[in-house]
Request: fold
Amino acid sequence: MKAIEIRNKYLNFFKSHGHKVIPSAPLIPENDPSVLFTTAGMQPLVPYLLGEKHPEGTRLTDYQKCIRTNDIDEVGDNRHLTYFEMLGNWSLGDYFKEEAIAMSYEFLTKELGIDPEKLSVTCFAGDEDAPRDTVAAEAWKKAGIPEERIYFYGKDNNWWIAGEEGPCGPDTEMFLDTGRPTCSPNCGPDCDCGKYVEIWNNVFMEFYKAKDGSISKLKQQNVDTGLGLERMAMLLQGKETPFDIELFLPVMEKLKELAKVDYIESRRIVAEHLRSSMMIIADGGRPSNIDRGYVLRRLIRRMTRHLNKLQIDLNELPTLIELYVETLKELYPDLAEKKETIKEVIVAEKDKFVKTLANGEREFNKVVSKLKQENKKVVDGHTIFKLYETYGFPPEVTQDLAKEQGFEIEMTEFDKLFKEHQEKSRQGSEQKFKGGLAEQNEQTTKYHTATHLLNAALKVVISQDIHQKGSNITTERMRFDFSCDHKLTDEEKQKVEDLVNEWIKQDLPVTIKTMKKEDAVSSGAECMFIEKYPDEVTVYTIGEVSKEICGGPHVTHTAELGHFTIKKEEASSAGVRRIKAVLS
Ligand code: SER
Reply:
């Protein structure tokens, strides 16, 4: 059964059981800066699990696009994915254990045609927070699962919560027996030898775990279920890995055709990371140096490295993207509309990385030959940090390269140095903050960031030759002087204002990096009086739109700025214009 058929069957089945089909939320959570990506179908539904009324009622079903990155380094084996689709159904204080279990059993055995003999289930064994889940076990027996295939486990296996805090509860999980022999007398669904594969999870969310660890009852008893689409398709199609199903196969085959040397792990990594990157970009994600932007950057970098390893011409990327748009068109028709943006973002990021790679790999190889001479087997944290700081070589790439050459790596020291480095740049900017700018507060910080955006917008709208000549910020307004040979027209002013507001709306991340002054300048960072800066400078980057040497401080995301309005444009001195603007 193809993935699209499984999805349709699922949604139709729950629709026929009184559920409303709701759309997938975007991969990038709306109004929730606390998580990087949507990781489960329940995530966008948290307010409703806590008791708020959902406009579509108390029975919902959907397919949810998800990204989970904890296992990013495992991708390449025969099962891990960073992007996957989760099918789910929810009861918001409506049905509970018995009905949820009866529906799950019916869907698996009748709709998907899974042999009931191959099903095993697990239930919560009970502890001080909740009793042994005999209700779930009885419901399974009633549905048709014999007692010997009902297992009880503790919180490690049968309790579900997203992160540290939030709605949670005992769960019951369904497993498919692959028919392989047991690996030991204790082998059961909790064993990861591969005999049992988890296919579905029903969480009985009736508790709330607070930050302090305490557990209380929710207002209502909810059900939250999740079934991984790719895995189910793989099992129903009798395939060994998700890369053998129709969603990956065309790209896997194409990679094989293009590769001059074949490594199956590398093909999987490329196929997996390319699909994830495309899905993130389609939902508005862009590469950057922090948070979700950095995850995307890592995915694209790792993919690029493995394309190199396969000796595939990187100019094939647009072809591979086209092929995915075609392959995934039934599941994600919107990829077609967004494919040009997807190509642009991926190709631009790849180009950036190619430069970094060339320098870093040369240095890495030097390190490796030295280690080999000394008969050492571990790349130490200092070396990883030096490669990062001096050559901008990402630690995860050093890690990958080291692994490939049979070396271990020592990250503890790297983590320590990295923290110190971050702290140093933070202190640096705080000091400059105290020294350079009087009357600092939240408002002036916003104006400071707005100044960078205005500077960048003037370059785009009027001319790349525009440069900052001065600025002055108070809590009420900003003033910005810049070189320009004419009075701005109303149309130009409007365009500049609109562009700044557009960038604010895009909520671009503002990132900071400490670097050598020459490196900053050669990387294209803008600055007013180069000779005035120390040898080591901080560079602020706003999304892809602005890069300036600056002491800060700045907001972390442009959406914090609110709305930008130009109040006045006038002459300041010969060849210098002045803009006064406010944020509201
Ligand atoms: N939230 C649960 C999970 O992610 C069930 O959907 O497994």
Observations:
- The pocket of serine is lined by residues 40-42, 88, 160, 201, 203, 224-226 (CB under 6 Å).
